[in-house]
Amino acid sequence: MGRRRIVLIVGSLLIVFVAAALAVQQGRLFWRSLDLAHSPLEHLRVRQAPAQGRVSRRLFLVILDGLRADRVGAVPILDRLVAGGASRELEVSFPTISIPQYWAMLSGVEPALSGARTNGYRAVPLPVDNVVRAAHEAGMTLAAFGADPEGPWYPRELWSWFRFSRFGDDYRDALADSLREQADLTIVVEDWFDQAGHRGVVDGPEFDEAARMVDADLGRLVAALDLTKDTLIITADHGHRDEGGHGGDERECMAVPLVAVGQGILPGQFGRARLVDVAPTMAALLGTPAPAASQGQPLVDMLRLEPRAQATLLERAARQRQRVEQVIAATVVRAASHDVLLRGLRLGLLGIGLVATAVALHRFGVGWSELVAAAAYLAAFVISFHLAGGRLSLSAARTSGFFVRVLIIAFLGGGLVWIALARRLRCEHPQLLWLVTALLAGVPWLCAMAVVGARVGLVLPSAPWTAMGAWGGLPLICFLPWLVLDALVSAGRWLSPKRPAAGARPAAPRSSAPQLPLRPARGPRAA
Question: What is the DSSP annotation of 302-357?
């Protein structure tokens, strides 16, 4: 093998490996950049005065993590509470991830604007005004409990606000102590449904077991409350797909139940509302101002308030939302316009780069056979990904084992097609086939970087483009093992000694002496 060929092969391998490494790093940075340290609404601190005094002696917010709206009937006590209390369906905003939705129901701000967009937000101080802050400033006793062993869902800066808090398997004992101490606002997170959903179970025996656990916990809580003085609100942060998993904008993930009973609640079934409406509704029950940046509307139709108080509450909430919308228009709309210009520039550069690369590869000798093989790899990868159940949704990656299984199927589907075509082509210059395949495999990643950028800013991309920003490099990354395999096979073919085919006669050895031209045979000399 010549030195020039070795340099070309090693250089091609390095180019592809570096590109794949950049795709991995970009996907990680993109996901981490979803959370914003600063919200465009963080400077809103002026609250509207409450329309009425405190209604509830103690307010309990129970978040049944992962419970879909159509699975309420699986929990017997919820059925009984629905019969005697208020119920409705709530719409959740993308992304349907737990901690962003906890803050949505406490601040009244959707994740796209609160800056809380992933579960990593527990490490970021919350700058947006919320019900917890208002209750703390009013001198109320706060409590927070949950089974999550990772600890509190709120940042460390808020730990001192909660007089009672416990997270882990023993949280029930601490909750009992809090009930005896009469905490004013208690937030409990039950994650049994979420654990089942992440295992791909949204129905069946395992789901029924989770429902029994929730039923028992809620039963103990309801038995400890005096619903003539206390108020219980039960809702969820998101649902799960039929296959399990959440995070995307699927209908199953974005519809959750709301059940409310006790003091200040009017029984009945009410129309659809939004999860961000929970925050101003809780504020009305506690007699505190609604969060200053709330986009929600108090659910006065299910509250036992005086008519004048209801009208005042709605009027002040509308005035507040108008102020919030003005801030959004002044910041987010301007940021969106800036993103459009940058996207146009990135797309233009991408187009120029792809054309220049294609021309260069063509001049080096890339023909139709290499292009067909490269296109076949990408097509087979995408088709296998979809046939295995994969979708451009964050929900696919949030089910234990499901996304790994989908990736293995896509990896095998695309790679086996490509390796078969690569072996059939027997390219004289395989590095050209490697480069053109890597280029086409990297097109989804390059398009994602052109459309949404390497990092997320103030404007949250749509659900499919958010997934593409995190996963766009997968076809390129999954190409690496097949590239290594083909390189090893090619190297073995180049280094192996050439053997004559079976039945072929060996060539006569050449003499080093100069060869003289043969003279034509002459006939017998004439007599």
Answer: GB---HHHHHHHHHHHHHHHHHHHHHHHHHHHHHHHHHHHHHHHHHHHHHHHHHHH
pLDDT at 467: 95
* pLDDT tens profile 140-199: 999 999 988 888 999 988 999 999 999 988 898 889 888 888 899 999 999 999 999 998
Retrieve residue 331's tokens: 């910041």
Domain 59-331 CATH (choose: 3.40.47.10, 3.40.720.10, 3.90.1150.10, 1.10.1040.10): 3.40.720.10
pTM for the model = 0.89
CA distance 506 to 79: 89
| Contact (Cβ atoms closer than 8 angstroms) between residue 291 and residue 131 | yes
Report how far residue 130's alpha carbon sits from residue 293's, in angstroms, rounded to the nearest whole number.
8
Helix (H) or strand (E) holding 164: strand 162-167
Which pLDDT tens digit goes with each residue over 74-95? 999 999 999 999 999 999 999 9
Return the closest-CA partner of residue 340 out of 212, 461, 232, 196: 461
- pLDDT tens digits, 121-155: 988 877 799 999 999 999 999 999 998 888 899 99
401 SS3 class = coil
State the Cα torsion 494-497-502-506 to the nearest 10°: 120
Report the alpha-carbon distance of residue 58 to residue 180 in Å, rounded.
Answer: 12
* CATH 3.40.720.10 intervals, the chain: 59-331
Q: Is 394 exposed, middle or buried (0-12, 13-18, 19+ CB in 10 A)?
A: buried
Please give, one letter per residue, the 3-state secondary structure of 234-270. EECCCCCCCCCCCCCCCHHHHEEEEEEEECCECCEEC
| Distance between CA atoms of residues 63 and 514, nearest Å | 96
